[in-house]
């Protein structure tokens, strides 16, 4: 099976048409059509239903699509590994990090990695942990940060941080000096929360379901500086890791009762061998974790 024809097939399937695929591939449309015909002849199976204006995959095409994604991702992985076989002078690391950790935990690690390996391209994608899991499965990123209390069976995970989730209150709040805050007291307040898909929001949603209460969410935002400003001005309270407010005298971090701890891990596809560049990045993150936890 010709890999080029397989790439053209994937492009047509994802673009929904031969012309759109040709534009994405920067080639002439007849070349795409010819490649698909050759692929269908090789397999002796119809791959697209061409009766409608927007071509659609046949049942046989749907089966091939699943294999095509796996095959082409494997080829891409192999080519990248070969480029990096002898040296870390070139390479790429694509890592997904939630905004909270990307802003307050990872900057020193990212800068240290960049300083040691200036030839490696480092791409950092910000998203919620749920979205990052989807991106790992789709091959859009090499690895991502997830909450690993119940890690998916098809991901390999390595914990690098155990952090306590804290209630964040303005310094003049009535509960700011309390040793802890109960779930009932927390949910009695108007809340400023991350949008769905982020690990802090998922934990709060789970706790509220278990407590049988409906959170009073006054603001939804993923911008940490905005969340901190809203809370500091008394328009609600929120949850963050303590590191986010450590240097902000206008905000106070109060632990929950019972306490809420999060295990944060780097994750990648199980059975997928990391490239040397990616493995080096993982080693640096885990070494930093060992240093921090001593």
Describe the protein.
Pfam families: HTH_1, LysR_substrate. This is LysR family transcriptional regulator. Residues 1-58 form the HTH lysR-type domain. The chain has 3 domains: 3-83, Arc Repressor Mutant, subunit A; 91-161 and 264-293, Periplasmic binding protein-like II (D-Maltodextrin-Binding Protein, domain 2, 3-Layer(aba) Sandwich), CATH 3.40.190; 162-261, D-Maltodextrin-Binding Protein, domain 2 (3-Layer(aba) Sandwich). Helix 1 (3-15) packs across helix 2 and helix 1 packs across helix 4 (59-83). The chain has 11 helices and 11 strands. With 294 residues, it is α/β, with parallel strands linked by helices. Helix 9 links the parallel strand 8 and strand 9. Helices cover 45% and strands 25% of the residues. The protein has helices at 3-15, 18-25, 29-43, 59-83, 99-104, 107-116, 129-138, 183-187, 199-211, 224-232, 276-293, and strands at 48-49, 56-57, 91-97, 120-126, 143-147, 155-170, 181-182, 190-193, 216-220, 238-241, 251-269. The radius of gyration is 24 Å and the shape is elongated. The strands form 3 sheets. Strands 3, 4, 5, 6, 7, 10 and 11 form a 7-stranded mixed β-sheet that branches. Strands 1-2 form a two-stranded antiparallel ribbon.
